[in-house]
Every structure is written in C-alpha cells, then in structure tokens.
Amino acid sequence: MRITSIKKLKHNIYELTIDDQEKFKLVEDYLLEYHLLKTKDITDEEYQLLKTLANYSKIYAKTLNYLSYKMRTEGEIIQYLEENECAKPLQVEIINKLKRLNYINDEHYCNMYIKQQFELNKKGPRLIAKELKDKHVDETIIEKALSTISKKMIKENIISVIKYYEKITKQKTLSQLKAKILRSLTQKGYDYEDILSELNSYEFKDDNQADLIKKEFQKVFQKYQKKYQGYELKSRIIRSLMNKGFDYETILSQFDSINLED
C-alpha cells in the first residue's frame, strides 16, 4: 500500500489517499510525527495506525468546530469530549494541543467574560463568579480575574442600574421603585450592603410622585366612600395606600382636598 496523495483541508486537517482509493483525514501533527509523506509505502501495521489516527483526528476536528462558535473554557471542552465518548488519553492530548495553540485559555476567557458581563450586561461579581464556576473554571483563576473589579466600578454599575430603572419606571411609588431595583441588583449578583448604600444616597427625581399619589388616592377614595365614613374611611384609605408604598405624611396631605364625615 502507498500514500498516493495528500490534500490540505481547513483547520490543519489533511486528507490522505491510499492507492488512489481509500481516504483518511488526519491532523497535521500526525503527518509530521509519523513521517506520512506522499508516495510513502506503508505496512499493514501502519495502515491500522492510520485508522486509529483518523478516528482521533475526527474527534479533534469536531472539537475545533465546537470551538468555532464561541470561546470555551477547558472544563467545557473536557465535558464535550466526555459526552462524545472520547478516551481519557486522547482527551489529555487534545486539551494540551488546544492549549499550545491558545485555542483554550481560561485566564483570557475569564477576563473577556468579565468585560462583557460586568461592563455591558451590568452583572455583579457574585453572579459572574457563579456562572464561571458553572463553566468549570478553577476558583483561583476566577478570583484573580474578579480582583480587577474595584469598589468604584461596582458603585458606578449600581448607579447605572438605578438610573435605568428610574427612567423606565413611571407608575410606581418611590418605595416600590427602590424595592424593584433592590431585587434586580441582588439577582444580578451585587452585595446587599453595596446596593442599600447607593439606594439610600441616590437622589431620586419625584417628578411623577405627586401625580401618582393623587391618582391612587382618588381611586381608593372612590372605592371605599360608599361603604365607609369618617374615621373608618380615612383608616382604610391610609392602609391601602401604605400597602402600595406611599409614606404616611404624603397620604395625609391628600385629605386636605376632601371632606370626611366624623
């Protein structure tokens, strides 16, 4: 048997043809390691080796394709290889090769992931750390990457989220708005103390609060005035509006516009 042609394909994969008939696809490393050259005569033993190398190359090519869609962590690649029933020795070989080529680099991956998730998606350190752990990244690498996030950067992100919700939220009391922001930032992975500190120091605009209390007050008043009078009517209005997040003094100020029978 003889290698009659060698054709280069993409991703450093080569197609070897034996006796102008049978074809094998191999990674470039195997051609160099086993001195597989055009016109070389091969023994039966070498022919069997070609079959094995072709199978390994097929798995490697699939892994490269898996990597082509987006960056992956080492842990994700190992999981992919295990799911494709790749033997442990070959897993190690493929992982080492991908590292040499810098196709997988968990430190670089973490830095890029943090840049996207923290700066663009405004996720906090806790959530980012969890997501990276779910991708099987070593905790030491995660901690080192997260150490680049300063307290100032965290504060700026929290304020950015506060401003966003303040802008898009119109039909809520200040108390309801703060509660909504607190839930969102907590879910995004920020520390409760950091969130609370910024919420308490942030100066919210109250442009729509006056109109909102008037609207809600009239709605509740219309609901209860036919059933209750005097003190009972006033008590029910106050309880209802406080449950909606309005403060006591703001509610009391609305009673000046109506007459209640004592």
Describe the structure.
By secondary structure, the chain is mainly α. It folds into four domains: 3-100, Winged helix-like DNA-binding domain superfamily/Winged helix DNA-binding domain (Arc Repressor Mutant, subunit A); 106-146, Arc Repressor Mutant, subunit A; 151-201; 209-257, Arc Repressor Mutant, subunit A (Orthogonal Bundle), CATH 1.10.10. Helices cover 63% and strands 7% of the residues. The protein is built from 13 helices and three strands, in the order E-E-E-H-H-H-H-H-H-H-H-H-H-H-H-H. It has helices spanning 28-33, 44-68, 74-83, 88-100, 106-120, 125-134, 139-146, 151-168, 174-187, 192-201, 209-224, 230-243, 248-254, and strands at residues 3-8, 13-18, 22-27. A three-stranded antiparallel β-sheet has the order 1-2-3. A hairpin with a 3-residue loop joins strand 2 (13-18) and strand 3. Helix 11 packs across helix 12. It is rod-shaped, with a radius of gyration of 33 Å. The relative contact order is 0.06.
Beta-strand proportion: 5-15%
- Mean model confidence by pLDDT: 86
CATH class of the largest domain: Mainly Alpha
| Full CATH superfamily name of the largest domain | Winged helix-like DNA-binding domain superfamily/Winged helix DNA-binding domain
Distinctive features:
262 residues; mainly alpha; Arc Repressor Mutant, subunit A; 3 strands
How would you sum up this structure in a few lines?
With 262 residues, the protein is mainly α.
